[in-house]
Amino acid sequence: MAPRGGSLRFRPIPMFRTFIVEFVLPLILFLLLRNMLRGFLSPRPRGVARGPQPPPVPPGGELKKDPVCGTYVSTATAQQERANGETVYFCSPECRDRYKASQRG
Ligand SMILES: [Zn+2]
Predict the structure, then answer these.
(1) Which pLDDT band, with edges at 50, 70 and 90, does 39 fall under?
(2) What does the pLDDT read at residue 12?
């Protein structure tokens, strides 16, 4: 006699595949999309620290404070002036001139 149970035994495998393709894959895609949208919609910046930050230091430079206006300038790009045996750094020639004028007093 024809084994009816034998043909039924192969059914669960295609049904399981259909279950994966029609239900699990869309669910995974939906979850991925939802996570992407959440990250897109949330205003929280990731890894970027906002707030007071020191100015960027060019390579080979060191930050020094401009004694006239208080701006931090890089020794690589700043206006320099030797005063009282030490080098003073300025953000601009104007600050340097003001400093020199104040030193002459
Ligand atoms: Zn300055």
Answers:
(1) confident
(2) 63
Separation of CA 78 and ligand 1 centre (Å): 10
Joined tokens for residue 57: 């230091």
What is the average per-residue pLDDT within 4-33?
A: 78
Is residue 53 included in any domain, yes or no?
no
CA 77 to ligand 1 center in whole angstroms: 13
**Taking the model in full, what pTM does it have?**
0.44
Q: How many domains does the chain have?
A: 2
Q: Which structural domain range is residue 73 located in?
A: 63-104
What is residue 83's DSSP assignment? E
Distance from Cα 65 to the centre of ligand 1, integer Å: 9
Distance from the CA of 68 to the center of ligand 1, in angstroms? 6
Pair type for strands 79-83 and 72-74? unpaired
Look-up of token digits 């002036």: 81
